[in-house]
Records
---
Amino acid sequence: MSGPTTYPGEIFTDTSDFDAGIRLLLPHYDAMLDAVANCLPATATQVLELGCGTGELSLRVLRQCPSARLTAVDYSPRMLSYAQAKIEAAGFNRVSWIEADFGDWAEGGLEALPINSFDACVSSLAIHHLRDPLKQSLFRQIHRNLKPGGCFWNADPTPPESQVLARLYQIVREAWTAQQGTALAAVKAKTGHGKPTHGHSSHDHLATLSAHLTMLEDAGFHNLDVPWKYYGLAVFGGFA
Ligand SMILES: C[S@@+](CC[C@H](N)C(=O)[O-])C[C@H]1O[C@@H](n2cnc3c(N)ncnc32)[C@H](O)[C@@H]1O
């Protein structure tokens, strides 16, 4: 085996393969991220992003919220430097990049983050790497650090509520990749030899949509909603 060992969530050995590869692996990735960003108030001045990766959602947040300062957290130095270069090349200088594990923040650590000060928190394809009890702690921590009326929107895989639809969800995903002219196997050949765990994250710990909504409600969020869903992918969240 060659190349760097990837952390959970990095997916590709070479970070520069991520943007094209994720679009082949996941149906309607762009529409999903657009849905997250569209939910943000254009008046937001402070936005927190958890697991920014290569900065595809960060870019959308900066465009949607022209006055906002974005605090972008990721535990991968490779992802952070890739995102930073992309965002700077796009002409934005409103981002604080923080190399940290958002699981530590869920447990009350991470003094680097401002407290109680965010108009919004967003995340995509990252929180599902935490086990459910830590997801729950993270949702509480997000709620505590939003201004009253602030919002949280998360895009993540959500498995079907029953096994009846599991095969259908899988078929839809494989058909998507086949439509792009590439077999799923060929895309997966570019994925990294991932570390099974790094910090608080490990390989997928998928929770159903209803389980997520229950956790969000328990964390204090209200007016929960699901502005976008496509088979096993969903954007969901609510207000503090
Ligand atoms: C699949 S990528 C998604 C990146 C980006 N949000 C997107 O939608 O394209 C998941 C990202 O979450 C980061 N990540 C996973 N677990 C993390 C944790 N516990 N703390 C900080 N970052 C984490 C990974 O390094 C990776 O950059």
---
Amino acid sequence: MFNVSREFAPPFGLIAPYFVIGAIFYLIASFVLMTFGTDITHFDIGVVGWAHLFLLGFVMMIIFGAMAQLVPVVLEVGHFSVDFYYLIWPLLALGTVLMVVGFWLTPGLLPYGGMMVLISMLVFLTDTILTLRKVERISLTVKTVAVTNAFLLLGILVGFAMALGIGAGVGIDIGKWLNAHIVLVLGGYVTLTIMGMSLILLPMFGLSHGFDERPINLSFKIMVGGVLLYLAATLFDSGDFRFLALLTMIGAMGLYLYQIWLIYKTRARKEADIWFKSMVFGYGSLALSLPLGFIGVMGGAERVGLTAAWFLVMGFFTFLINGHLYKIIPFLVWFERYSPLVGKKKVPMLADMVPKKMGEFQFWFSAGGVAIAGFALLIGNDEMFKAGAAFIATGAIFLVTSVNWMMKFGKEEMENG
Ligand code: HEM
């Protein structure tokens, strides 16, 4: 990201809404969490609505914003049309709201919301595919982007078909396709994308080099195999293959964790800033989620499986995303406001552009909340779950204020000349 040339770098005004709106969706979803108890199952329509509020409004919104910046770096060519990104976030935000209202209150709205989200993602996929076509050197990263995008496309098409089933009475066996949808979007897109991005971002921010990259390359292939096997198992309705596919994916993630350990061991920057702490908590959550997921799959225990999903989504996905905001936003703001001034005026360092106290509060409230609520889910204690959710919501307030603080850094000074 840091060596992206001005020619390829998308304008700040284009990327900023993704991070601001993503953080606001995170805040709203955190407050909604307080309304849940521990008797939830993943079939509850209230939980399904929440899952999309969180995953589309926060996780996908921020991944797309980061992709606007990273795609040119990873693929070493400029976007086919970066202007597409002006369309993606409004469609995704509005579509998400309509979908969530559809799940919670008015099923008839679901296909409309689903259609908007589908279009926003098709715009994203179109830019990515047309950008991929410009690439001359087909590296592993290029293949990775192609594969994850294909999984996303399949996943949202399955989602849209289910939305038509709920909102428009189209005959589709939701029981059969629901898990394939989850595996495609969460395993095939979000997890594989995080794996690919982390291989670039972690060594860059932690200054690691000279480590062996074979584990991640292998884990990537195993994970892709696991997702494909799950898809085949759904098509042929085979419980045994579904089981095998889940174990394959857990194994792939275990190997990925080993890769992270190798990157950690070779890092040159030892400072424990908010980014570093967030990575430790995020990967710690993944390390907890994998054995819990294994027990859940082997024993079929819903509560253990739910706790595994909790640590995967609220611990791993969330801390990896939020932790990186403290690196990515200051860089974007610096590039926009200060890079033209280098050599003419004294410019701040990136580390000065992070709200350290607010960031600490955000980290500790969120981490405490995820741990407390995760434990409460495991033992089935409602009050404890709500207390954990309240901590997460408090952390979310600090996240939104931190994002706002970083976005505004130096703005007034610039306006006043
Ligand atoms: C066009 C976009 C999408 C549409 C129309 C859609 C629609 C749906 C529908 C109809 C369900 C099943 C509801 C039920 O059980 O009755 C569902 C479940 C689910 N979707 Fe999506 N989805 C979309 C995109 C996504 C994306 C991008 C993600 C993740 C990043 C996602 C994650 C999930 C999850 C985790 C569930 C299961 C929730 C639970 O069982 O509690 N969806 N989706």
